[in-house]
Specification:
By secondary structure, this protein is mainly α. It has helices spanning 2-104, 110-114, 122-184, 190-198. The protein has a single domain, classed as Helix Hairpins. It is rod-shaped, with a radius of gyration of 43 Å. The two termini are 53 Å apart.
């Protein structure tokens, strides 16, 4: 009976020894595979995500810088349009009216007014020259007003495109961050990676 107990105990020790060795070997193999996984797959993949996120953030900063610049330009254009509409063009129109009143005060007849063969005095010529300059100046201001309106429309369209691009970049950043977190939490762990290399999955 004693001999059976001793043999059983030896068997248990033998099995335990080999089981320990097997577990140790498995632990070493697992550590080696984990190290290979980290160095050859996990770390490069994380760096790839970090580089992509950094690049996207740079694009977002560039987009915000462009947006800030275009907003400043739009504010300047709006201020110029407002100045032309409320001050410069009305003042130019008033100047024309003033010159027209000066011409009317000359009491010229229709013939004197439009006959090119009648020699006008220097003072009368000067009044007509100033009126023509005022008309030309008003037309120039009106052209500038139209150009600014067109520029405003173009810049507003560009602003909308930049805002849309920033929104898209935010979505891309969110996706990359989510993927990085998924890898970081082990959703793509050693076992799936190893099985993938072996072609089992």
């Amino acid at each position: 009976m004693q001999k059976v107990k001793e043999e059983f105990l030896l068997s248990v020790i033998f099995v335990a020894k080999w089981l320990t060795l097997a577990l140790g070997a498995l632990a070493i193999i697992y550590f080696a595979i984990s190290l290979a996984y980290l160095r050859s797959y996990y770390d490069p993949l994380m760096k790839e995500y970090e580089l992509e996120i950094a690049e996207l953030n740079k694009k977002k900063i560039d987009g915000k810088t462009s947006l800030k610049s275009i907003n400043i330009t739009l504010n300047e254009i709006h201020a110029k349009i407002d100045m032309l509409k409320k001050i410069d063009i009305p003042a130019a129109k008033d100047a024309i009216i003033l010159h027209e009143k000066k011409i009317e005060s000359l009491d010229e007849s229709i013939i004197d007014k439009y006959n090119p063969f009648i020699e006008k005095s220097d003072d009368v010529k000067q009044i007509y020259i100033e009126r023509d300059k005022a008309v030309e100046y008003k037309e120039k201001l009106e052209e500038q007003f139209e150009d600014l309106h067109m520029m405003q429309a173009v810049k507003a369209e560009a602003r909308s495109e930049i805002i849309e691009r920033i929104k898209q970049i935010d979505i891309f950043i969110s996706v990359e961050v989510h993927e990085k977190e998924r890898v970081g939490t082990g959703a793509l762990g050693v076992l799936p990676w190893l099985l993938g290399i072996l072609g089992i999955v």
